[in-house]
Amino acid sequence: MERELLLLGLLRQGAMHGYQLNDFIERNLAFCTDLKKSTAYVLLDKLQARGWVTMQEARAGNRPHKRVYSLTAAGEDAFQRLLRENLGEFVAAKTGSDIGLAFIDALPKREALRLLNRRRAALAEQLTEFESAPQHQGSYQLLIDHQLNYLRCELEWLSQVIARMQSRRVPLRRGSARA
Amino acid sequence: MERELLLLGLLRQGAMHGYQLNDFIERNLAFCTDLKKSTAYVLLDKLQARGWVTMQEARAGNRPHKRVYSLTAAGEDAFQRLLRENLGEFVAAKTGSDIGLAFIDALPKREALRLLNRRRAALAEQLTEFESAPQHQGSYQLLIDHQLNYLRCELEWLSQVIARMQSRRVPLRRGSARA
DNA sequence: TTTTCCATGTAACTCGTTACATGATTTC
DNA sequence: GAAATCATGTAACGAGTTACATGGAAAA
Fold first, then answer.
1. Domain edge (last residue) among B88, B114, B140
2. pLDDT, tens digit, for every residue of A92-147?
3. Are B73 and B122 within one domain?
4. Which of A29, A30, A50, B179 is the most buried if burial means most Cβ atoms within 10 Å?
5. How many Cβ contacts (< 8 angstroms) between chains A and B?
6. Residue closest to C26, CA→C1'?
7. CA B81 to CA A156: how far, in whole Å?
8. Do B83 and A105 touch (CB under 8 A)?
9. Which of A83, A143, A145 sits opposite B106 (nearest CB)?
10. What total number of domains does chain B contain?
């Protein structure tokens, strides 16, 4: 119901057509949702089928036909319900690429470090990019703060892991020189 | 390729049948993957079709037939490739329930706080549960550390958000008493 | 003897993506 | 006249889940 909540929330601020919604999401919320454009159109149909929004064909001047959606009373109810549900529970984020860490011992230490450093670089870059993004207004800034917090924590943790790995002695092999 | 990497990595430590794999995952890795049992069986078929594992029917005593899978050389190659790919890149985790925050202003402050406190409680509980889990060995502990780090960061951030929201004055309405 | 554990699957379904299709209008 | 923007969709596909189906053995 994440995506539904998003669409309902946006429509709450005024009637919009699909293209507008997609545009807004792409410009402002790309970092926190991966909703695709096609999906949004399909979703709007479903919201309509549920009676949460109504649609009205419109055409401004000679521009292509638009389908403008507005929230219904039932839609506002649904929004309120979904929002409360969403805010009141905690769902841990799914890490995209964690399990690799479980098998890091399968690589020579040198290479493991090289890879982790590359990972850290990618992370750091993402963070920098994010930090230089312009401030948003109101609660949207909360989302950005959250993401920033997440990225910073990840970076710090990863740095620690690398440091720990670097300082650990290479396991001695039989026959290696020993002081 | 996350799931494939996981299965290959486990099979690398020795031949296993599906039930064993599922069991291990459920007991030890439930927090970092949501691989379902049925999916695992299907996946093993696919790994076999790709030549990454071989299967051998076995039966111990009168127990039900088992299909024991072992890694092939091609499977080891695939594992090495997938592991490097996985470790070398950073993929931000997908937050399960973030967008609600963008619309938190839609609720009266009181209720918003009540919900966020509930969210924090759920988070704190998850963290406690996790902290009391037994230590794992080797790199698996890395996964647990990662999750712990994540949960702690989330908890701290959420607490800050709540604190900020609490200390902010309620917006005055027209006609409210003013000092 | 009933429940739990061992052990494996299939079929239908859901959700979402990708690629494709369409067509007008404004800008270069 | 070409390209970008505006505007909406559909059909095929893919990944994964759910619910269901099966059946023997061990434990309670």
1. B88
2. 999 878 999 999 999 999 999 999 999 999 999 999 999 998 888 889 999 999 99
3. no
4. A29
5. 201
6. A63
7. 27
8. no
9. A83
10. 2
